[in-house]
């Protein structure tokens, strides 16, 4: 229960509002409504919501939730569990180490949004509310009840800021609006996390396994959504569900356990990712998976340059193109000007080496610049690379890259007789071409993750962070800023070139249009930078998650047509407004954006 305290007020000072909810329902009634509404929502998903199977997902069955009903079921179950945990129910307090009230509100909002979105979609698709069955009406009423109950839960309201009585009406409106937003933020604020009970090592490892399994299930479900309404519902449920778990303190607790067992988490994450192709019945979603891995690997390389060293590189995709064109030229393609076919390991090393050379050649004369000037120069390099390969067609320049037609008919990789272009049966599972490349790219991603982790924990990694925070101070302490930045630039280029050698074989063709600064299809420099910033600069998992979202969401939002980029850009603006440190931030960077947050009691070399 919330304890209300009273402080002395001085004349003229703003009066702090008592702890109460956003709506005027008593707390005990609101808590009961939220918990009961969540339980009734779960029950409603086992009823038919419409009488016809014309709506995608076939919501006509009793006793078997389908389609969007499954997402509403998950949201209702979370709301119910958080509500029971708020009563101190034995066996459920571990769900809310930071308090349950904010989690209840977010879970109820997400469930309400998914259920009502489904009902509106049914009405719009089938032609009116008359097509709803009793289950749909019960879901609408239950989610509304849970939402009203959740909004009645009390919270500590911020004191209103004093304002000048002589302010104009517009200034008064702005003041009131700021206070309203402050109240809304306070209503879902995270409470103080209770100390965790000490668990044996095997218990913590089991928690890591459970978290990774849950992540694999969520990713597989999201990538396999078969129609537009289901993907939109998935985004709503996953977004609010993850935020509710974070507000409950569960995400931070799991993160602390994974940080304690970093090697186990790393191995487990890649084992879970390697299991993804074996969960698919065909190669359709493995195609998306391999492109996400290419995008994520290049983003992780850019994270060294931007996240660790603090260098704004707007032409980074050019290094991916250098690696891809190098591999294509020595792949035995009939479009290649060189009559040579190297084995994959040799072409991969060559592509990475050539990209590193380009990184040094570009970095050496430009890394003495800082900030916007460096960004402009790197942007120019990216465009110069694209125009150079476009004009190397034998007409405008030497015949090397075949111009706009690119280098085509790149053969599949063959390693020790294992042809990546053919289907193979492993342990009774048949994996096709893109699944083969997914596993290969996963191995390269593992190499990049290890390089990133070892580099960031090394002496040179700490020098990168020092340069990022204050280059002048770092140089005063004896750090050779130019040398340190050049190493970061060269290493980032090498990792991007390595990923490009695989991309060339996956896409069959490399063309200049694939390596633009901005394009609707990633990877490109703008999307790569967005993946790093959105996911969390300076972390390993941040760019991987950011790249997955930035590739998957546009691919699934194609039904919006001309409004696709508008919706996508609006979503990015909102995320950066309310979580500027990224989805999975470095603890130090999170404190920079949220000065009012409680500082960690223990600081490690990673800042957590």
From TrEMBL:
Keyword annotations of the record: Cell membrane, Membrane, Transmembrane, Transmembrane helix
Keyword DNA damage: no
Disordered as annotated region, ranges: 1-20
Major subcellular site: membrane
Subcellular location per the Swiss-Prot or TrEMBL entry: Cell membrane
Residue stretches spanning the membrane: 32-52, 64-85, 106-130, 136-155, 201-224, 230-251, 263-279, 285-307, 314-332, 344-364, 371-389, 434-452, 486-506, 526-552, 559-578
Record's bilayer topology term: Multi-pass membrane protein
InterPro entries from the UniProt entry: ABC_transp_permease, LivM-like
Low complexity bias: start-end ranges: 1-16
Domain of life: Bacteria
PANTHER family: HIGH-AFFINITY BRANCHED-CHAIN AMINO ACID TRANSPORT PROTEIN BRAE, HIGH-AFFINITY BRANCHED-CHAIN AMINO ACID TRANSPORT SYSTEM PERMEASE
UniProt protein name: Branched-chain amino acid ABC transporter permease
